[in-house]
Amino acid sequence: MAIAVIGMLDEREQALKLIKEQIEQRGHKPLLIDISVGNGAIIPSLKADITCQELARIAAPEGSLKDSTESATSIMAEGLRVQLSLLVESGELEGLIAITGMTGALITLAAMSAVPFGVPKLLISGATGQPAHAAKFAGYFALKDITVMNTVVDTVGMNSLVRSLAINGVNAVCGMVEGRSAISGEEKPSIAITEYGFCDRGAQYLREVLEGEYDMVSFHATGIGDKPVLELVPRGHFAGFIDLVPGAFSDHLLGGNRAVVGPGRLDVAARLALPYVFCPGGFDLIACGPAERKDSNDPLWTSRNLAARKLYLQDSTRVQARTNAEEMAYVATEAAKRLNQYENKGRVKAVIPLRGFSSLSVPGEPLHDPDADRAFVNALKKHLDPAIEIIEVDSDINSPTFAKAAADALLQVIRRTGAGGGKSQHA
Fold first, then answer.
1. Domain identity same for 156 and 233
2. What is the pLDDT of residues 335-358, one digit of tens each?
3. Which string of DSSP letters, residue by residue, matches 97-133?
4. Which domain holds residue 89?
5. Counting Cβ atoms within 10 Å, is residue 308 exposed (0-12), middle (13-18) or buried (19+)?
6. Sheet-wide strand order for 319-322
7. pTM
8. Domain contains 108
9. Deepest of 78, 95, 185, 262, by most Cβ within 10 A of its Cβ?
């Protein structure tokens, strides 16, 4: 097995050479991969194990970096992605380290999508902190367990600072490789759960009920945190999924801040033989901060007249507005349409708390509106396929009673079907 060492030899030969040598001194095998996209004016003396020309031929068999109609960066990213996938499939890759500038960071991060969760991934770069590209980089970091070492200085040439960065990087990736505990079939199966601060007690009660038999893996349902749900759940990591907080779906419908993953948020398990428990956490509110939007003719605030609603201001940045009865019925109807498309309806349970969908909408709290909650329940009953069981719980979403009902619903499906993983299959 090898640790992939990735970078542009025509720009960072000295740093790559040092990283390669240091990995060898640690007793590991380095695999040097060149991702140069330059014009060939600088010819490095260090030879790559996998050249940039080889990567280009993988991505553009009929062309080259020079004559392809595609950008050189895109070609190199695709070639590297395919090459890393092949290394993973053959069992040869035990980790990777890259040292890059801006272009190299974009190439490497795009290719890291091929590397599974848990395989050590270290990027040494000063590029990821640039505000102009923050959203693009955040998209990669939201989906992958990538460690970033910010360089502060540029890493071309060699000096004491670059040397320190390279050696620290090698120690970091080698330490991760050496300390990594492989996923074993003897470990407990995992259950995925979505949660956030307004439903955190309910999630904790669920963990207490299930963690004796299962590893509970939480996803922070803040919009960007919903992206890895769509990435990891279909990969077969989980024996079940309790979607406690699918609130990004309602924010997509209503225009809230958590509308990051789009209309497919509830489709995540539609074609999976995976026990899926649907709850309405977060449907009772619209994320609409910051507060100054209220007085700036903001389209969301004006179109939905949010200023006249019940509001909860956590701080100047985070503001939640109560969804009204009409919106709750709409969300329920659209959610039912999505759930009705699930191929394995017997594996789906809708568990609904009747006394509050978050800590903000229980009696005495600022977004309490039982009529709106009831509109959701009524619409869901009307539109949801009868093959999907609705379980109504006379408590709020953060109660031990609700947690037990949701856990029991999941376990009922698991025990009845003998469900194991979430890989795409029919049942």
1. no
2. 999 999 999 999 999 999 999 999
3. EEEE-HHHHHHHHHHGGGSPTTS-EEEEES-TT-GGG
4. 2-179
5. exposed
6. 285-287, 319-322, 311-313
7. 0.80
8. yes
9. 95
